[in-house]
Amino acid sequence: MSSVFDTLKERGFVSQCSNEEGLRRLLDTEKVTFYIGFDPTAESLHVGHLQQLMTMAHLQRAGHRPIALVGGGTTRIGDPSGKTEMRKILPVETIAANAQLFRAQIAHFLDFSEGRALMLDNAEWLAPLNYIEFLRDIGRHFSVNRMLSFETYKMRLETGLSFIEFNYQLLQSYDYLVLFRRHGCRLQMGGDDQWGNIVAGMDLIRRVEGVEVFALTSPLVTRSDGKKMGKSEKGALFLDPKLASPYEFYQYWVNVPDADLEQFLLRFTFLPVGEIRAMCAAKDEAINEAKGRLAFEITSLVHGEAAARGAADASRAAFSEGGPGDLSAVPSVEMDGAELEKGIGVVELFVRAGLCATKSDARRLVSQGGAYVGRNNVSDIDAVIRADAVQDGVVLLRAGKKRYFRVIVR
Question: Where along the chain do its domains lie?
């Protein structure tokens, strides 16, 4: 039987490991408690978090116990890792509200029944800390020279590293120590930008408890076309359906570059590796079918199978040559019919729909032939859209080949 460590490696989840042989042996012989932290700096997780959620899910399916640690305490400081400037300090109430939203989203990936996984908040032990005692008991184990040797801190010294951020590594390391003491946690995981913080926690436990624990990081996910992973036309692609509809989420994945298809199927689905490799060896139309499978699998994980089917049906309907079918899952906005009776400029309409961020973007889209109203291409930036564009109570807009939007006329 293959090791779950081999599974993680084969699917692209393994980059740096403190002791690969020791961790492999531990995972093969014991039920291991492990953790990943999620700082609630926004009201939703985004696509960038998917890799860590999938890593946790694979390990849980292999019989290990995940701890999803929501950083209600560490977020009050802000992690400098991977950042060129200091994070905005959020109100405590906002952090707590975001943490509750994170909990619901993480539950889509992990089974929390009967203690199979834990959801904890580090505010529980960080908020009551006595700072002087903390520095005496924990801070003395940290070398400033060693902290500055990690790339994250080197980078920030050029732009400025605040004293409060400098404490972040101590707090994250303390999290690992608390989880080891309370729950027997032996493994912390995260992205490559977290390597310094994770290793610091591992060293703290070795110094204080005299026990070996492990660190494992995954490579940061990048797209072959140079775009940042998880960035859509609107910015970060969030998992909350109020911030990115299931249809928009589905469309992101169905439009990924061909070169990224295999790595995304390996990392973001549970499909067997052999099946994935066979799908990605296909050409032409079969590649589009594989992208549809990718989009359906990920959308099902995040939003549920019903929402994924609705998004897939809407996508097929929108691109059908025979005319639109059920487009109810396509994003929409309502508009008063009287406004269309008077007429509305095509540039303003595309901006209002959110298909273009600015009027300049909309003028460029129209003049370059990428704007469609219904099935008709509109290339005149001065064109006015009127009530005759309404079909079955809807004006269907399209930007480029793939992005649809409905204007529901009331």
Answer: 4-218, 231-319, 332-409
* Structure tokens belonging to residue 111: 């089974």
Q: Give the count of alpha carbons within 13 A of 123, CB side only.
A: 18
Q: Report d(CA 189, CA 203) in Å as an integer.
A: 15
DSSP characters over 198-232: HHHHHHHHHHHH----EEEEEPPPB-TTSPBTTEE
Given pLDDT bands bounded at 50, 70 and 90, which one contains residue 92? confident
Pick the CATH number of 332-409 from 3.10.290.10, 3.40.190.10, 3.40.50.80, 3.40.50.720: 3.10.290.10
d(Cα 185, Cα 122) in Å, to the nearest integer?
14
Q: At what angle do helices 305-319 and 285-303 cross, to 10 degrees?
A: 140
Percent of the chain scored above 70 by pLDDT? Answer: 88
Among candidate residues 275, 277, 237, 278, the one with its CA nearest the CA of residue 256: 237
pLDDT digits (tens, 9 = 90+) for 370-380: 898 988 899 89
- Strand, coil or helix: 33: strand
Q: Which of 28, 35, 30 lies closest to 4 in space, CA to CA?
A: 28
In this predicted model, what pLDDT tens digit does every residue of 322-338 receive, in sequence order? 445 566 778 888 888 88
State which CATH number among 3.90.1030.10, 1.10.240.10, 1.20.1440.20, 3.40.50.300 fits the domain covering 231-319: 1.10.240.10
d(CA 54, CA 301): 10
End-to-end CA distance of the chain: 61
pLDDT digits (tens, 9 = 90+) for 192-231: 989 989 999 999 999 999 999 999 999 988 887 777 676 6
Q: Which one of 15-29, 155-169, 227-241, 274-288 scores highest in mean pLDDT?
A: 15-29
Classify 87 in phi/psi space as left (phi over 0), alpha (psi -120 to 50) or beta: beta
What is the distance between the alpha carbons of residues 153 and 159, in angstroms, rounded to a whole number? Answer: 10
> Which tokens in the block code for residue 357?
């961020």
Average pLDDT, the chain: 86
